[in-house]
Amino acid sequence: MSTVVRLETDQLLRSVDELADLLTDTVNGGASVGFLAPLDRAAAVDWWRGRADALAEGGLAVWAAYTRGRIIGTVSLAFPDKPNSSHRAEVVKLMVHREGRGKGLGRSLLATAERAAAEAGVTLLNLDTETDSPAESLYRSAGWTRAGVIPDYARTPDGVLRPTTIFYKYVVAAEVSEPAASR
After folding, report:
1. Bridge partners of 90?
2. Mean local confidence (pLDDT), 145-171
3. Domain range spanning residue 51?
4. pLDDT for the residue 146
5. pLDDT of 183 higher than 60
């Protein structure tokens, strides 16, 4: 059983080593989350440290999933800084360690982000993911709507250009519930 916790800035900074381990495992395991493999651990630590200012300023919210005291997954919400977009947010960096996949943790993290967004008054979420990836199946099954595909959008960790699928979902606080596996 995992526990999902919203990280404050000091918690994120104390957890950068574990978060870097998760990021390197995700990238080196083939998931396209913006990095090329092999991802250097020091670069992953620096990347997570670089999120601290956005977290402190409220432009980013980060959750970590703990299993047996260890971070095994994460998800973030990025909030736009423009007045005309205060109703929306982007789901970013949903990652589950290879050891924790297939157990509903990705779905639980996604539901956590959806619920928090709705509670914050956000009504529209968006995200992108590699087309035909396991993550794409997760988003479809969680009620996200496919907006379209952009060809050759990003490189996979091994450097191959791949299309990305853009998804969106409307959320309302009363309609977003916790998945049964997390209750």
Report:
1. 78, 126
2. 97
3. 3-182
4. 98
5. no
How many CB atoms within 10 Å of residue 159?
A: 8
Q: Which residues contact 10 (CB under 8 A, 6 or more apart)?
A: none
Would you list the DSSP string of the chain? --EEEEEPHHHHHHTHHHHHHHHHHHHHTT--SS-PSSPPHHHHHHHHHTTHHHHHHTSEEEEEEEETTEEEEEEEEE---SGGGTTEEEEEEEEE-GGGTTSSHHHHHHHHHHHHHHHTT--EEEEEEETTSHHHHHHHHTTPEEEEEEEEEEE-TTS-EEEEEEEEEE--GGG----GGG-
Residue 180 pLDDT exceeds 60? no
Angle between helices 134-141 and 105-119 (to 10 degrees): 50
Arithmetic mean of pLDDT over the chain? 94
CATH number for the domain that contains residue 28:
3.40.630.30
pTM (two decimals): 0.93
Total domains, the chain: 1
